[in-house]
Amino acid sequence: MLSFIHAGDVHLGNPFTGLNQNLSPDFQGNVQLATFTALDRLVEFAVDQEVDLVLFPGDLYHGSDNSPLIQERLTKALTQLDQAGIWSAISFGNHDFQQGQQVHPAWPDRVLVFGPAVETKTITTASGLKVAISGFSYADRQHRQSALPDFPVKQAGVDYHLGMYHGVVGQDGEKYAAFSLPDMVAKGYDYWALGHIHVRQILHRNPVVAYSGNLQGLNRNEDGEKGFFLVSDQDGQGLLPEFYPVAPVLWQRIQMRNCPDLATLQGQLNAYHWEQPTLVILELTGQVGPDIEAAARFGTLEESLQASRKSQSDYWPVKAQITTKALSQERPALPADVDLQAAINQVVQPASVGQWLSDQAPTFIRDYFYSKEGQADLAGRIYQDLVAGGQDED
């Protein structure tokens, strides 16, 4: 039975964004070492579970910085895997594309590194299984061309064929090696390990085409558990992924309703049982006390909560805001000769939609807004917002 780990977007050495300079010293160590700790946990798991290989489909490094610390920690991790008889397959993505052109210390024997051209490498596992792995690395940051046409169909004479691809679903010519999901499935591979999107999601189930997300959330938009997929073929059902969290620092959104005053809010945060070091994005709903409103208005709410945090507590308030439904404002009348709907329809086209969508948007959202139905829906919502004052509750 084949088993392997799919770990996209490790981003070794990433400096977290969205933190202010007042970060508590007892949290700084956790944050600075978070990506390294997550990788160490992956390696420990891989060795304990005796997996056959680990796939790193792009952005293993956060950038072009090849500092001694980053290189030392990665070399140590790959060496541990090699000594345990575990293969590692590495490709470089948009963040670390320059790593493919830099000189590295000698890789351990069981490390496969993919270059800018699509290539297929074959290994034999300890149990005698033959596994083909096809992949490529970015030659530049945006890689505005699908690499799928250069991927071969499933190789004959192997037990499994795996694909590694760092990119997004989209139209050929868009940035980040935009690819067609049906074209990917048509290659006949047993599993596709995707990278680039930091949201864990399965795009196709037979065979599985999936993003594992990243090992560690890097900013407040990447909240929730982060980790990797353990993929195995049990009972001949095909290669199926199972998620395992390893992030040492959690970004978490917390909602609190009807806080009467700042002291109550501070007490609730300090009394909460945090499972692990947690960076908190706090949303206050309902009725809030006047001192909370004043602190939010003057921009001191976060600092107040940080100052009242108990020493060595496993949380740190990153963002605090009062969330209320804004009343619609009266809008100026449109000129009588303006066909607003026609103008909106002219703007809402596939090319513009592709520019508006975030690269981190889940693929089903991207696919929807690329469709005629999705574009019509978007155009209608824009019209409703401009003309009717944004009263659409959907």
UniProtKB/TrEMBL annotation:
SUPFAM superfamilies: Metallo-dependent phosphatases
InterPro entries in alphabetical order: Calcineurin-like_PHP, DNA_Repair-Maintenance_Comp, Metallo-depent_PP-like, Mre11_N
Domain spans labelled Calcineurin-like phosphoesterase: 3-199
Source organism, top-level taxon: Bacteria
GO molecular function, one term: exonuclease activity
Keywords: Exonuclease, Hydrolase, Nuclease
Protein name as catalogued: DNA repair exonuclease SbcCD nuclease subunit (SbcD)
Organism: Fructobacillus cardui
Organism classification: Bacteria, Bacillati, Bacillota, Bacilli, Lactobacillales
